């Protein structure tokens, strides 16, 4: 109990600038943990949605029925399903246009899928730049508080004739607290950023592979339609 009171007293007795540094690091840590939990939930949901949609897509059912099923609930379409929905919609629109070259139809669907995929990746990458910023800057912010606390200690030494440990201990202690808070904010943010950036990259690869496989299916279909005319 005494340690907790002493720690709190050191924070309260710190210089205003060091208190500002500590408060900013605490806020950054709270916001980064909020972003960490948010990204964990979103990426887990995206992986689950991709698995479920791939099972439906490769089950051998009619793609038109799959598209119409998604179209009934447009607000719930996300991830790989959104890529498929955008590609099939553009394919259906161009296919019915008169005089369209078969390859132009497929390329139009491919472009629509890439636009949808870019939007989905932007949503998945939300808050990652903030985690990277917290991870890279928090140690330096803490170091600034450390330097300022040590400067205060030396300044206190310069105003007395005899130096004592009690005189310099508070300044050094607040400096070390600022360092610890900087690391406390940075380390989880860096670990989470690396983990989630890898997860986003893996999902992006899955989306790209699916888009190419779906484009190949559309290409075969459009050539079959052109040959039947």
Automatic annotation (TrEMBL):
<dbReference type="InterPro" id="IPR014163">
    <property type="entry name" value="Tol-Pal_TolQ"/>
</dbReference>
<dbReference type="GO" id="GO:0017038">
    <property type="term" value="P:protein import"/>
</dbReference>
<keyword id="KW-0812">Transmembrane</keyword>
<dbReference type="InterPro" id="IPR002898">
    <property type="entry name" value="MotA_ExbB_proton_chnl"/>
</dbReference>
<feature type="coiled-coil region">
    <location>
        <begin position="193"/>
        <end position="220"/>
    </location>
</feature>
<feature type="transmembrane region" description="Helical">
    <location>
        <begin position="128"/>
        <end position="151"/>
    </location>
</feature>
<dbReference type="GO" id="GO:0043213">
    <property type="term" value="P:bacteriocin transport"/>
</dbReference>
<keyword id="KW-1133">Transmembrane helix</keyword>
<feature type="transmembrane region" description="Helical">
    <location>
        <begin position="17"/>
        <end position="37"/>
    </location>
</feature>
<dbReference type="InterPro" id="IPR050790">
    <property type="entry name" value="ExbB/TolQ_transport"/>
</dbReference>
<feature type="domain" description="MotA/TolQ/ExbB proton channel">
    <location>
        <begin position="80"/>
        <end position="208"/>
    </location>
</feature>
<comment type="similarity">
    <text>Belongs to the ExbB/TolQ family.</text>
</comment>
<keyword id="KW-0997">Cell inner membrane</keyword>
<keyword id="KW-0472">Membrane</keyword>
<keyword id="KW-1003">Cell membrane</keyword>
<dbReference type="GO" id="GO:0005886">
    <property type="term" value="C:plasma membrane"/>
</dbReference>
<keyword id="KW-0132">Cell division</keyword>
<keyword id="KW-0131">Cell cycle</keyword>
<comment type="function">
    <text>Part of the Tol-Pal system, which plays a role in outer membrane invagination during cell division and is important for maintaining outer membrane integrity.</text>
</comment>
<protein>
    <recommendedName>
        <fullName>Tol-Pal system protein TolQ</fullName>
    </recommendedName>
</protein>
<dbReference type="Pfam" id="PF01618">
    <property type="entry name" value="MotA_ExbB"/>
</dbReference>
<dbReference type="GO" id="GO:0051301">
    <property type="term" value="P:cell division"/>
</dbReference>
<comment type="subunit">
    <text>The Tol-Pal system is composed of five core proteins: the inner membrane proteins TolA, TolQ and TolR, the periplasmic protein TolB and the outer membrane protein Pal. They form a network linking the inner and outer membranes and the peptidoglycan layer.</text>
</comment>
<keyword id="KW-0175">Coiled coil</keyword>
<feature type="transmembrane region" description="Helical">
    <location>
        <begin position="171"/>
        <end position="193"/>
    </location>
</feature>
